[in-house]
Amino acid sequence: MLRCRKPLFIPKLTRIRTFRTSAVRKNAIFNPATVERAEDEVDVCIVGGGPAGLSAAIRLKQLEREKGNEIRVVVLEKGSEIGSHIVSGAVIEPRALNELLPDWSSMSDHPLTQPTTSSRMLFLTPKHAVPIPHPPQMGNKGNYVVSLSQFTRWLAGVAENEFGVEVYPGFAGAQLLLSEDADALDPWGNKVRSVQGVVTNEVGLTRKFHMKPSFEPGMAFRAKVTLLAEGAHGSLSKQAIGLYDLRKESQPQTYGIGLKEVWRVDPEKHKPGEVVHTIGWPLDMQTYGGGWVYHMNGGLVSLGLVIGLDYKNPWISPYRELQKMKHHPYFRSLLSSPKAERLSYAARVLNEGGLQSVPKLNFPGGALIGCSAGFVNIAKIKGTHNAMKSGMLAAEAAWDVVHPESESASDMSAYDSALHKSWIHTDLHEVRNLRASFGTRLGMLGGVLYSGIDSLFLKGRVPWTFKHHKPASSSGKESDFPTSSLDASLTQPASSHNPPVYPAFEAPLSTDLLTSVALTGTNHAEDQPVHLRVVRTARYVEEVVDKAKEGKGNVAVGAGLDAVRAEAEVLGCEKEAEAEEVREEVERRQAHVRVNVGEYAGLLGRACPAGVYEYVPDEEGGAKEGWDGKKLVINSQVCAFTLLLPISISFRCSSQNCIHCKLCDVKVPTQDITWTVPEGGGGPKYSEFFLTV
Ligand SMILES: Cc1cc2nc3c(=O)[nH]c(=O)nc-3n(C[C@H](O)[C@H](O)[C@H](O)COP(=O)(O)OP(=O)(O)OC[C@H]3O[C@@H](n4cnc5c(N)ncnc54)[C@H](O)[C@@H]3O)c2cc1C
Ligand code: SF4
C-alpha cells in the first residue's frame, strides 16, 4: 500500500469556457491532484468523430430544430482532423444515411459518387482464383464504394456547418469524469458513481511526467449525457464496460484485424464500382479471414485482408499475410503495372462478435454507440450503417433525458431498448451464427459449410445461438476484468506451431513494414508519456479512476520506471512505498517478457501492424526489468526486462509509430498492454491522401 505524506487534493475544475488554462509550475513533476483544469459544460459530449458520433450529433441538432429547445453538442476527436484515424476504402450501405439526411444525394459535395456495379466472390488457391457464389448478405446492390475517411470528413462538415455541432479534432478523451460519490444505479441495480463527462489528455508532458514549458492540462467536458463513439475496442469504452460490468449478460467480444492498402491502378484494369471478396489462400485452414478488392472512383482500388484475432498460431504475422496475398496471380495482375502505385496503408481492429457480443449499452450518465459497442455485420463486412443508426437512436434517447433537466444521473436505458427493437437487431440477428460457427466443434471447414447453409437457406431462423467459446484452460491469462480478451486466451504456445513461410518482398508489389508505415503519415510528439501501458486494465483503472479520486493514484502506472518513480515522488510517498511502486512496475515487465517471449515467441513483434514492439537481445545483460536476457524498450528507451538466462533480449516499443489499431490490447496473451490515448492530434493521418486527390 502507498503511504503518502503530503496533503491530498481533488483536481480543481474551473468553470470557465476557454479551452485551456496554463499550469503554474512548468518543468515540475506533473501532479494530477493539484492541476487546475478548465471546465466546459455541455448537454451531450460525444467521444469520437466517426460515423456513429457524428450521426448522433446531427440527430440531436435535428431534434433541436424540430422541438425548439436549445442543446449544446460537442464531438471530441483524437485525430488531428476528422477522418484522419478512420481506415479508408469501404463499401457502405446507405440505409442509415437515407434516414438521417434524406436529401444527401442533392448535396453538391457528398462523397458517395461511386455506386457499386458488381459483386463477386473468389476462392483463392496458391495459383488460382475460383469464382464461387457469394452469400446473399454480401450482395451490394444499392451500396457505394467510398473512402470512409472522406465520408466522415463530409459528415463532420454537415454537422458543423448545417447544424451547429461543435466538432473538436485534436481532443483525446483520456478519462471518464465520474461523480464524487455513488449517486446512481448501474443496469444491474448496484449503487455506483455516474459518468458526468470526460477529461481530455494533458498536452506537454515528458515521458517522465514532467511538465514541459508548453504544458496545458487536459480539459473537463462536463455533460448531462456522454456518448462513447470510439470505434472498436475504445479505451474509455473498455473502462465503462469494466466499471459497470456491461458484459454481464453478453458473450465476450471477438475481433479481427483489418489491414488495408489503397492503390492507383492501371486505368485499363480499373473497374469502377466492382466489389470482390476472397477466401482461402494465403490463410491456413485454422485461421478465419478473407480479402477484398473494392474499385473506388478516381482510378483507385482499396484492397486488404481481415484476419480473425482468435488465430491460434502465435507465429502468424498479419502484415506478412497481406503482403503474401498480393503475390497471388489475381492481385499481381491487378497491381503489377508501371502505372500502378501504392498510396496508403492502414490497419484497425474490427468487431466480429455480432449480436451475442453486444454488451448492455447504457450506463449511468451515458451509453456506448457504434463500434464502441460492436455492431459490425461480419457476414456483410459492414458496420457503418449500424454505427450511424445506433448513434441516431442514442441521440433520440439523449434528447429525452436532457429535456426536461433532472438532477439525477441520466438514464439512457431507453436507447438500449430502442436498439433491440430496431433494424440493427434484425440485421445482426439473421447472421448471428455465421462467424460463431467457426469457433465451435465444427471447426473451420464445418464453419464454412454451416455458414453457407445458414446464409442461403436458414437465414438465422433457428432456435439456437452459438456462443464464442473460451478454451477450457486459460491459465496465466487475465480473468479479472470483464473486458479480458477472448482472442488472447485462444492463442496457443509457439511450441505447438510452426512459423508460416513468407515469401521475400518484391517492391513495389510488396514491401517491408516500415516502408508501409511511412504511408500512414503517423506522428506523435516525441517526448510524451508512453501511451502503451504495460499493465492490466483492471490495475490501470484502479490507479487512475479509483485511487485518483482521493488524489492517491499513480497515474503513470505501466508507463515505465522513471515515470512511476516520478509520480510516487509527487504523491509524497515514503521511500519504502516508492520502492514498492517501482518493484511492481519491474515485476509486471518481467512477467510480460517471461510469458510473451518464453511461451509465445514474442507474438507482438509480429502481430503489431506498425512494428511498434520488439524483443531484442539485451547487450548489457542482467538488467533488472527483463527475463531470459530480454528487455522491453518503449519509445527507444530501454526498459531492461532481464532474468538470468543464456541470452539477453530486449523488448522495444516505439510508440511513436503506433497507428491506433488496438491489436496489442486485444491479442497480447498476458492481457497486460492497456492502450491509452496519446496527446490529441497524434497518430495516423489517413485522410491526408484524400485531401490531395
Ligand atoms: C479494415 C476495415 C474495413 C472495413 N470495411 C467496412 C466496409 O467496407 N463497410 C462498412 O460499412 N464498414 C466497414 N468497416 C467497419 C466500419 O469501419 C465501422 O463499423 C465504422 O467505422 C464504425 O463507426 P464508429 O463511428 O463506431 O467508429 P470509428 O469509425 O472507428 O470512429 C471512431 C472515432 O473515434 C475516435 N476516437 C477513438 N477514441 C477516442 C478518444 N478516446 N477520444 C477522442 N476520439 C477518439 C477515432 O479516432 C475515430 O475517429 C471496416 C472496418 C475495418 C477496420
Ligand atoms: S502498438 Fe498496438 S495499437 Fe499501436 S499499431 Fe501496434 S498493435 Fe496497433
UniProtKB/TrEMBL annotation:
* Top-tier EC class: oxidoreductase
What is the protein name stated in its UniProt record? Electron transfer flavoprotein-ubiquinone oxidoreductase
Sequence ranges of Polar residues compositional bias: 472-497
Tell me the GO molecular function terms: 4 iron, 4 sulfur cluster binding; electron-transferring-flavoprotein dehydrogenase activity; metal ion binding
Cofactor(s) annotated in UniProt: [4Fe-4S] cluster; FAD
Cofactor comment: Binds 1 [4Fe-4S] cluster.
Q: One GO CC term of this entry?
A: mitochondrial inner membrane
Source organism, top-level taxon: Eukaryota
The record's section on Gene3D superfamilies has: 3.30.70.20, 3.30.9.90, FAD/NAD(P)-binding domain
Task: Supply the source organism's classification.
Answer: Eukaryota, Fungi, Dikarya, Basidiomycota, Agaricomycotina
Q: Fetch the InterPro entries from UniProt.
A: ETF-QO, ETF-QO/FixC_UQ-bd, ETF-QO/FixX_C, FAD/NAD-bd_sf
Keywords of this entry: Electron transport, FAD, Flavoprotein, Iron, Iron-sulfur, Metal-binding, Oxidoreductase, Transport, Ubiquinone
Q: Which organism is it from?
A: Galerina marginata (strain CBS 339.88)
The EC number on file is 1.5.5.1
This enzyme catalyses: a ubiquinone + reduced [electron-transfer flavoprotein] = a ubiquinol + oxidized [electron-transfer flavoprotein] + H(+)
Q: Which residues form the ETF-QO/FixC ubiquinone-binding domain?
A: 255-350
Residues annotated as region Disordered?
468-497
